[in-house]
Amino acid sequence: MTLSRRTSATAAIAGAAAFALLATGCAGTADTAGSGGEPASADNPITLTVATFNDFGYTDELFAQYEAENPGVTIVHNRAATSNEARDNFFTKLGAGSGLADIEAVEVDWFAEMMQYSDRLADLSDDAVADRWVDWKTAAATDADGRLVAYGTDIGPEAVCYRADLFEAAGLPTDRTEVAELLEGDWDTYFGVGEEYVAATGQAWFDSAGATYQGMINQVEFAYEEADGTVIATENAEVEAIYTEVLENSATLSAKLGQWSDDWFAGLANGAFATMLCPGWMLGVIEGNAPEVEGWDIANVFPGGGGNWGGSYLTVPAQGQNIDEATKLAAWLTAPEQQLTAFAAAGTFPSQVDAYESETLTGATNPYFNDAPVGEILIDRSQAIDVAPFKSVKYFPINDAMQRALTRVDVDATHTIEESWQQWVDEVNSL
Amino acid sequence: MTAVAVDERPVRRLAFSQKLSRWDVKFSPYLYISPFFILFAITGLFPLVYTAWVSVHEWNLIGGQGDFVGLDNFAFVLQQTPFWVALRNTFSIFLISAVPQVAFALVVAAVLDQNLRAKTFWRMGVLLPFVVAPVAVTLIFSNMFGDQYGLVNTLLGNVGISPIGWHSDALASHFAIATMVNFRWTGYTALILLAAMQAIPRDYYEAAAIDGAGPIRRFFSITIPQLRPTLIFVIITSTIGGLQIFDEPRLYDQFGQGGANSQWMTITLYLYNLGWGQLNFGRAAAVAWLLFLIIVLVGLINMALTRLIASSSGVTASQKRAVRRAERASASTEKEKVSA
Fold first, then answer.
1. Which of B169, B236, B327 sits opposite A8 (nearest CB)?
2. B256 lies in which domain range?
3. Quick check: helix, strand or coil at residue A232?
4. Do A159 and A378 touch, CB atoms closer than 8 A?
């Protein structure tokens, strides 16, 4: 077969054009707001899709319960692996004007980015739920026009998870009260105990520089942006200090497993590291990925005081076909009772005020974590949070680039601390 | 007389049915081919032009069209180091995947061309990996290529080779991604080559065997030269596919951005990061157009090489006939590919 000039040129053009199609396929505008839709009943069956990521603690049983109480409703639950993946999907389809699930979960890190387009989300304001959440959670989800566009699910008060069996082997205390006393203090204390552990065992103290950095940066009120949105990330001495500190310590203390990588999940199960920073929702991740491991425990302590990592919301995109039914389901899912069920399943700590009074939470223990009183510990940890980090529209891309900078030094070992910092500065400037 | 009068009459108008049949002959072929071009105009040409329109504007994924900025988006992209890194990665992955793939496919096809028992079983067997979804292939391979606890590094460790940084070293990551591409595509390429091989007249081999040529000599002196046109087809299609590689690098790690240091960020992945990560469609469209131009350029180079090969080979009449037969065979497999 000899290709003539025309056929191969056409083949090349056709191939390239097919690709160009990808780039334009999603560029439409999204001003078509979906209708409220008919209420569901046995005669008018509807399907509601719920999109979450990681582990929200929404079990099949939970959805089955709602389906039983509301005849005609079928719920389809889609779970993305990471929050990054969910974000890509969310913005693509929000821009395209179609394709989003009826209920979309949104993480706090890219929440501000999303709030720019709050007019594309359904107004969920309702007196019945007005006082359901802690104040700052509700305030962040209310847009300039006073519309409440998202229902809070969980918050992420952080504690320290540790492997009691590995602590014992290293000659460290294993009881969670003693561990809490041992680690009480600032980050230097945490890294200092790590040095002891590493000296005794030759094993790593924490999982990765990236995860540890996340705990530290969430204690800074204005890390990357000032209150008016001005980007200060690259000039902020505090950011550079944290960056340098965590990487210098990682040289000896880190297991060098990039968070959420296949290696990291394997490391969770095989004892590659002895401690990790543990927001409430992380408990479900650990238990789910290392089900056979005995020894994980949780200590009521966090370096440098308290910290919040993550926490999410549920939104109802205005493009959906069944907005009223979706709002009803979102309200039900974020009600204190259901959030407590989710907490029991995955450790997602409630952002709902009423839940804190509940016996279910205060008396909650987790058999996997050696029967730790996780409810009590996390309530304590949430009260220790004294900084609400300011996250504006550039927070997510800057922090994402920062995570790559940390990975270059810690996991990949392709760059020195200074080189990687410089590359990050360049990347932030090109945003 | 009357007959003469009839002859002198001006030629009467053609009946409509005659006209129709004349039009039928003239225009029908174009009508029959038109669905392809109409479809192409809608799904190919329009997006191409629209992307060009987007690329000269500020354009946010959600906010939509902004100001006209001329070629600023192109200038910005061309000044970015990541763009050139992406270009390097794309070509590197393409070369590491395409070259061994064609070579290996040739060997597989040659083996399948022999008198094997249960021929169809073996032929379908090599196509099996092609049936597996690329996402599934990538998930499995990424796990195998884990830096610390991956299967590959464990096996290497068993024979005393120190672990390779599959996700940190650029070349190693390209190799891993090329492995996934080859896993999926080698069987497919082998079948195309096999079809062409079977069109080679068997008398050539007999004549060569009588002249004392061994199997290796027969392979290099008869099979390979006869396969040339099909090889060119395979190379061109794999070039276009290779330069657009996306699924494999996207799913190679948990973040899908091509690595912390852009180790395996390809052009399409860079485009994706710009468009969907930074929500900047103007710049993403500029990258899409640059990629288009690059593919056209590579296509032209391919074509020039093709002509060079076609004119330099002094083929005999019977060889030409065989080539034509091979063309027919490969044309039918090509059709299969299009319909697939």
1. B236
2. 80-339
3. coil
4. yes
From first to last of the 431 residues of chain A, give the pLDDT tens digit. Answer: 344 444 444 444 444 444 444 444 333 333 334 456 667 777 788 999 999 998 888 999 999 999 999 988 999 999 988 888 899 899 989 888 889 999 999 998 888 888 888 889 999 988 888 888 888 788 888 888 888 999 999 988 999 999 999 999 999 999 999 999 999 999 999 999 999 999 999 999 999 999 999 999 999 989 999 888 889 999 999 999 999 999 999 999 999 998 888 889 999 888 899 999 999 889 888 998 898 888 999 999 999 888 888 889 999 999 988 999 999 999 999 999 999 999 888 888 999 988 888 888 888 888 999 999 998 999 989 888 888 788 888 888 899 899 999 999 999 989 999 999 999 999 899 87
* Cβ–Cβ gap A412/B165 under 8 Å: yes
Among B147, B168, B240, select the one facing A15 at the smallest CB separation: B240
**Does one domain contain both A266 and A349?**
no
- A-contacting residues in B 30-69 (Cβ below 8 Å): 40, 43-45, 47-48, 50-51, 54, 59, 61-62, 64
Domain that residue A85 falls in: 46-154+311-362
Query: Are A408 and B64 an interchain contact pair (Cβ–Cβ within 8 Å)?
Result: no
| Same-domain check for residues A187 and A268 | yes
> Which regions of chain B does DSSP assign to beta strands (E)?
57-60, 64-68
Identify the residue whose tokens are 């009943």: A41
Residue A317: which residues within 8 A CB-CB, separation 6 or more?
A34, A94, A100, A101, A102, A104, A120, A121, A122
CA distance B263 to B252: 11
Scanning every residue of chain A, which has its alpha carbon at the shortest distance from the alpha carbon of B233? Answer: A1
Can you give the pTM of this predicted structure? 0.78
Of A78, A410, A384, A45, the C-alpha closest to A244 is A410
User: What is the SS3 assignment for A309?
Assistant: strand
Does residue B74 belong to any structural domain of this protein?
Answer: no
- Of how many residues is chain B composed? 340
Partner-chain residue, chosen from A2, A14, A30, that has the shortest CB–CB distance to B306: A2
Contact A1 B148 (CB under 8 A): no
Taking CA atoms, what residue in B is nearest to A2? B229
* CB–CB contact B254 A431 (8 Å): no
- List the one residue out of B186, B279, B287, B58 whose CA is nearest residue A19: B287
Question: Which residues, other chains included, contact B85 with Cβ-Cβ below 8 Å and sequence gap of 6+?
Answer: B262, B265
Same domain, A84 and A123: yes
Report how far residue A369's alpha carbon sits from residue A280's, in angstroms, rounded to the nearest whole number. Answer: 12
Contacts (Cβ under 8 Å, ≥6 apart) of B47:
A17, A20, A21, A23, A24, A25
Domain count, chain B: 1
* Whether residue A190 sits in one domain with residue A71: no
Q: Do A9 and B303 touch (CB under 8 A)?
A: yes
CB contact under 8 A, A9 and B296: yes
Please answer whether residues A308 and A29 qualify as being in contact, where contact means their C-beta atoms are separated by less than 8 angstroms. Answer: no
